[in-house]
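Hello K.,

You asked for the raw outputs rather than the summary table, so here they are, unedited. I folded two proteins back to back in the same session to keep the settings identical. This is the first:
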Amino acid sequence: MPRTRTPLKGKTNMPDQSARPGSEFHWPFIAAWAFCVVFYFLQYALRSAPGVMVPELTSSFGLTALGVSSLIGLYYYTYSTFAIVSGACFDRYGAKYVVPVGLALLAIGAILFGMGLAAAADAGRLFQGAGSAFAFTGAVYLASHGFPGRYLATAIGFTQCFGMLGGSAGQFAVAPLIHGVLPWQQFWIYGGLAAAALALIALIVTPGGHAERTPAQLSIWSMFTPYKSVLSNPQSYLCGFAAGLLFLPTTVGDMIWGVSFLREGWHIGYAEAVNRAAMVPLGWVIGCPLLGYIADRFGRRKPVLIGGATLMLIVALAILYMPHDTIPPYLEGLLLGIGSGAAMIPYTIIKEVNADEVKGSATGAINFLVFTLSALMAPIYGWVLVKVSNGGPLDLPVFQQAGLIGVGGIALAIVLSFFIRETGSAAQASKPKTLLPLKPALGGAL
């Protein structure tokens, strides 16, 4: 007879957030996911905003091109580091208190940046990166527990969609604000206050409770144990580096240097340059959910990943090396952004090539790998610009030579994609099932 399981002593009826996603919608987690998506929107707006205030930052802090790139790039150092911390925190503590902590760090960082002091700006950018690392990881974590597994790639795509909508707003909406409505410092103060208000809302709406822990799991260091599984899987590195290389044209190329490239390289006016640069993250708004839906609809991840990256490569080459009126205005940035949506496919794959109980850590690991690349490449790209220009203006030939970094990165991502395991539902359904030998019964009679 089957044995009835005796409840563990002290076991509560709180929801187990580490459970495998089922076939039903869990609306409390979906509601919390929605507010975490707003968090992701806000942090992306604050991440991209410095790209439209490079002249103000240069004059206020007395910085060179390398100095501006380094200041803005500080964000990615703490973002990549805290990506590891955030993933472990979600797996260890759940989302109820971790998401508000991330918002609080973002609020502190924005207010510090708005003080207008060089040291405070450095610290503020570091705080912004640390807090922002909890946004996407938290949204994916909550989506994993709110949506059925068959909708997960679509939910992750919509999450990134709203993030990049924030990135686009951080360019086309912030530029007119700081050049007519309020000083750039006040923009950061208001952004910090908005993050603080959202932290209170998230604390109220996010479900509590988590799986019960054994005494051995109560150690603070045990929260990092899941990374042993994630980071010992070669597929995790393939996902991380492929996604990271596909992120570079956006995080470094567009959000830091996109406006400068259009102004100095193509000699486009400031307002027009801001609007064109904002089309790249706006393309993500289309590309992320669209490519996620296609990957879910056809049950194949790799063809969508490789196809989107190939579109990126073609458009990037056209932007850099063809006459700037070859492609209709605004279309080149939009197409680049749509193709860039493929960078989110590895975020789904890494969760599928690792165990179910390390969902948060898998997302934290890929965020760490992705934005470590951005943290390293932001100052390197600035140094290359200074080196190639040799103290002269940052004209089109300078950007064309430096742009080989991004082009080479996209090409390498395509190569890595061929070695990533296909985890789509169609591939899983086509795998032959292993039949276990039947156990003889009644003296061998079947």
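The second followed immediately with the same parameters:
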Amino acid sequence: MKNNIIFTLITFFIVSILNLIDAFEIMPMDKNLLFFSRWIAIGFLTFYGIKKKSLTTWIFISMFLGAEIGNDFPEFATGLKVFSQIFLKMIKTIIGPLLFGTLVVGIASHSNLKQMGRMGIKSLIYFEVVTTIALFIGLGAINYTQAGVGIELPKGETEKIEVVAQKKTAEIILNIFPENIAKSVSEGSVLQIVVFSVLFAIGLAMLSEEKKKPMLEFCESLSEVMFKFTSIVMMFAPIGVGAAIAYTVGHMGLGVLVNLFKLLATLYIALGLFLLFVLLPIALFFKVPIKKFIIAISEPVSLAFATTSSDAALPLAMEKLEKFGIPKKIVAFVLPTGYTFNLDGTTLYLSLAAVFVAQAAKIEMTFSQQIAMVFTLMVTSKGVAGVPRASLVILLGTAATFGLPTEPIFVILAIDELMDMARTSVNVIGNCLATVVIARWEGEYDPEQISEG
């Protein structure tokens, strides 16, 4: 197995060098040779995946395979989008029943309602502190690199984005509470599902043991069935992921980074600094076993990276955190709540993108104006659920408020998929860590309970 890894890496290194030589026109290379060399490398990678038999491995292989299909056969690749849509639809069917079952069992079976209130307060404090730090890191990064200054914005085809009106504070608060749980489930309003499930569980906990037992048993069976359902759907993950990457590359092309590489690099470096200097110290402070934690979240994070969907990673993340030793009641409460209030990657991205728009439009903004704008973005983003490319939609609405042009935002759209991969991954990492932190804070995390697999 070790020899296979070494041979595969050497093959990829040689192929990468050949393609870089051609890309930078250092030496003319035969296009057919490059084509076959890339597919030979993919073949070795696939052979390694067959031997490894790991979902994570196959997800990464499918990313490379999808990128190659998108590059070599763009017309065919754009037709593969349907497979990624099927996968995401199946994932979305899991979220509502899974959250309901796990939350009800977690809260009602323990009957410790004071703890739920305490966890809610601790979670919100943690979320607010960490997302604010992410916001300032984003501001610092974009003001340092000045990625939007002097950029010649390409005039390409732009997609239409439906601009939604900014939501007032009262509307944001109102949107937290469901009026129809079936509607909340169908629209994917995670926070509304959480609120309904928590209130339902509290009501169930107040019943006598005799009356609540049947419902508890039903909810426990429901959550177990949904975890098995997740396992079945995840077998389709490599196909869904590969199709998503193929469509992205086929639609935009590999050369999409040329004009906006500086902005993209700024985001990736800023997110890396956030992981290294914020999340890592938090993990060390709360004595989280780093290596085991990385292994536990590798699959949901790689899934989020490839699909650019936090929802796609939620069921798997819940399952992995339970195996990591976090009690079900904490996982079911903190992780979904974090999906609304603890979007570290998205918050950092919004601060970058907003200032980038101002820089590209040659509009001078004071630091206080930048702060006001990104705080507005952070608050309004919490009021939007189930909107494709929600970050860009929010960005457009806020730009109008602060007198910024929309043209640079449509340019960002060209690499939004690539930026979304990174920010979504950080969202998932941040929420997984937050769940472990709250469990440790509550004194209910036992590293010895980590299960294999």
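Residues 156-164, 383-388 have pLDDT under 50 and may be disordered.

Happy to rerun anything if the numbers look odd on your end.

Regards,
P.
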